Amino acid sequence: MSLATIEKTTRGAVAVRSVDKSYGTQQVLHEVNLDVAEGEVLVVIGPSGSGKSTLLRTINHLEKVDRGTISLDGELIGYKARNGKLHERREAEILAQRTEVGMVFQNFNLFGHLTALQNIIEAPIHARKIPKAKAVARAKELLARVGLADKADAYPRQLSGGQQQRVAIARALALDPKVVLFDEPTSALDPELVTEVLEVIRDLAKSGTTLIIVTHEIGFARDVADRIIFMDGGRVVEQGTPTQVLGNPQHERTKSFLSKVIEPAFNI
Amino acid sequence: MPPITTPVTDAEPDQHPAPEQGQPQTRQQGHKPAENSLAAPSQEQLADYKVVAATHPWRWVGTVIVAAIAAGILYSLLTNPRWEWGVVAQWFTAESILRGLGQTLKLTLISGALGFALGFILALMRLSSSPLFSSVSWTFSWIFRSTPLLVQLLLWYNLGYLYETIRLGVPFTSITFAEFQTTSLISQFAAAVLGLTLNQAAYSAEIIRGGILSVDQGQIEAATALGIPRWRRSTRIVLPQAMRAILPTAFNEIIGLVKGTSIVYVLAYSELFYTVQVIYNRTQQVLPMLLVATIWYIVITSVLSIAQYYIERHYSRGALRTLPPTPLQKLRRFLATHAVTKTAATSPKGQL
């Protein structure tokens, strides 16, 4: 495990340049520029509808951007630049690029008809062509890492929400991605189950994989983030270290958002 | 008629009190504390009480009525000599009938399998982002669902009248790779399979499309994000989960197809129904012969219904926390619990 993590720290730099994205007439991303360094843990906060999820989804090309580019370790996602034009990549290349980017969803999206183990080995075997025995061994290792070694043969519906999300994280890690994207990983969980998932992510943050985390858990963000960006209305409004953004926000919009999110916690 | 039904109905209520007679012994043990103390029973005493299942007296009345009707129908079926059961029995396993049955099964199997395979491809085409694929698929379903199957069959069979030869080559040139006589290419069997398959494909495409649409979009998104190739996504992730929605309607279609094959009689193809017709035209025993065919259709449908139960159960893995017991397991459990209560009733002291 330690060897793999050392290797990982030398990769996983994401660069987002002037990205615009609209759904119909509604523009959800405006001129977004963002650099995520190798091994950095970036937390994205902001009100719902601020474009956080869309930004994540453009990074593994689940959504096409209208303008601008996104690159991973210098390689454009979804396009190839040639003779002053951007050529759309072929399906197989896009799939190969996606295996470099792991994604964890708010609603887990585990394959309901497959066991936890089958969920994890599906992509390594069929997207990466890794031999089955090797994929199974790695999957068991990952299940043990997220504390679910005994749940390999359980179906998602037989697991709690927190356990399902931990399996989903193991599934994303099975491809040894350069970057892992978390789209509100704890929003669908009971408060009691949030901690077990955050623990796994915290552990992952220490391992040196580049992480981009969209979350409403401000306390967790303060704890785990190297950098926090605050998004509103499809724009990156403010960014900096947790102390800067959470402790001394510069923009009015950031202040009012944080006061709504943090204050209730102080009152308790 | 009444002599048969009355013993049955009388027997029912008589049999029922029987098991209850054994129970008061055990029930009294639970009641004793309450009878001794005049005050209302305490929570602890209540905890020791035996639960008496709610009774459904109207259910028994309903059962009696249904049993009476069923017995009446059965009685008339058995005793009316015009059904000519002797003739039915004589022909039921006759060689010609079995051969016809074989043809019916063959037609069902081939056009069912090909129809659903083509239907799956059509459903994927319809859902694809390519406007070419989706419009070709839509047009196919539109044409084959709007024309009567009978017309389609006759059209395929008479293709030789419209086009005497079928030529494989480059259109609008004289380059020809192969040329066939249409009538030799399209036999009765080929016309039947073509007609049934294409018609079935049009309907099953919609059934499968409906099933695919019922699968949560997040499943496809997760598979996409993992870089799983498109075909694998459809066959491994989406289709197995769509099966739960597809199967009930698909079995409806297949059962319809079993009987639908009888329409092929217009091509004088000797499947079950055509064979039966040929026989009764000769012997004039119309109703008994139709009964022979009907019973065989019932047999096939019954087998299919049992298969449906187990296939649906297979695809509900993961969708349910625990699978419901199969009828066999239910029966075994029923017998087991019954055996236990019986031994408990006969030797209560041994249990205590």
In short:
The complex is a heterodimer of chains A (268) and B (352). Chain A is an alpha/beta fold and 268 residues long.
Describe the structure.
- By secondary structure, chain A is α/β, with parallel strands linked by helices.
- Chain A has one domain: Rossmann fold, CATH 3.40.50.
- Chain A has 10 helices and 12 strands.
- In chain A, helix 4 packs parallel to helix 6 (161-173).
- Chain A starts with a helix and ends with a helix.
- Chain B folds into 2 domains: 2-79, no CATH class; 88-332, MetI-like fold.
- Chain B contains 17 helices and 2 strands.
- Chain B has helices spanning 2-15, 17-36, 43-48, 57-79, 85-92, 95-127, 131-146, 149-157, 159-162, 182-185, 188-213, 217-225, 230-260, 272-283, 286-315, 327-346, 348-351; strands at residues 165-169, 176-181.
- Chain B has a two-stranded antiparallel sheet.
- Chain B is flat, with a radius of gyration of 30 Å.
- Chain B starts with a helix and ends with a helix.
- Mean pLDDT of chain B is 84; it is low at 1-34 and 345-352.
- At the A-B interface, helix 3, strand 8 and helix 4 of A face helix 12 and helix 13 of B.
Order of helices and strands of chain A: HEEEHEEEEHEHHHEHEHEEHH
Distance between the termini of chain B: 50 Å
Spans of chain A of 5+ residues with little confidence (pLDDT < 50)?
A: 1-9
Beta-strand content of chain B:
under 5%
Largest interface: A-B, 33 and 24 residues
- The percent range for helix content of chain A is 25-40%
- The poorly predicted ranges of chain B are 1-34, 345-352
Mean pLDDT of chain B: 84
What's the helical proportion of residues of chain B?
Answer: over 70%
Structural class by secondary-structure content of chain A: alpha/beta
Can you tell me the CATH topology of the largest domain in chain B? MetI-like fold
